[in-house]
Amino acid sequence: MLETSNNDELPPIPAKRYFTIGEVSELCAVKPHVLRYWEQEFPQLKPVKRRGNRRYYQRHDVMLIRQIRSLLYEQGFTIGGARQRLSGEEAKEDLTQTQQVIRQVLLELEDLLQVLRR
After folding, report:
1. Do 47 and 76 meet the contact criterion of CB atoms below 8 Å apart?
2. Which domains does the chain have, with CATH numbers?
3. CA 106 remoteness from chain centre
4. pTM (whole model) above 0.85
5. Rounded to 5 degrees, what are φ and ψ at 23?
6. How many beta carbons lie within 10 A of that of residue 32, not counting itself?
7. Angle, nearest 10°, between helix axes 90-117 and 79-88?
8. Which residues pair with 50 in a beta bridge?
9. How far, in Å, CA of 44 to CA of 86, rounded?
10. Is the CB of residue 70 less than 8 Å from the CB of residue 38?
């Protein structure tokens, strides 16, 4: 079943270095088994694996997952089409990721400003 929620409706990515699969699942509104499947289908998605084969995702992984989610669920790409789009348009991907980072930093700065005003 396709999810139709927009990336703008997803929660902001916390300022952490590593995220568990459960945290990423909530941040990206995608079930953990889907994340594990996407790891097999998208070579760019390589979370760090530690003790007991536990996955730890970094911020860039979370942003990539949100981009994959958008391509598949919102823009209607197939897995193959999304894979091709991600590998063929690295410059555009970098721009999109940069824009997402800027949005995230702005949100964090606004939160910090509210705390400082108290």
Report:
1. no
2. 7-117 (1.10.1660.10)
3. 17
4. no
5. -65, -45
6. 14
7. 90
8. 54
9. 8
10. no
- Please, what is the Cα angle at 68 between 32 and 84, to 5 degrees? 130
Q: Which residue has the higher pLDDT, 100 or 46?
A: 46
HEC string for the chain = CCCCCCHHHCCCCCCCCCEEHHHHHHHHCCCHHHHHHHHHHCCCCCCEEEHHHEEEECHHHHHHHHHHHHHHHHCCCCHHHHHHHHHHCHHHHHHHHHHHHHHHHHHHHHHHHHHHHC
State yes or no: pLDDT of 2 exceeds 50.
Answer: no
Render pLDDT for 21-56 as a digit per residue (tens, 0 to 9): 999 999 999 999 999 999 999 988 999 998 888 999
From the CB of residue 74, how many other CB atoms can be counted at a distance below 10 Å?
Answer: 14
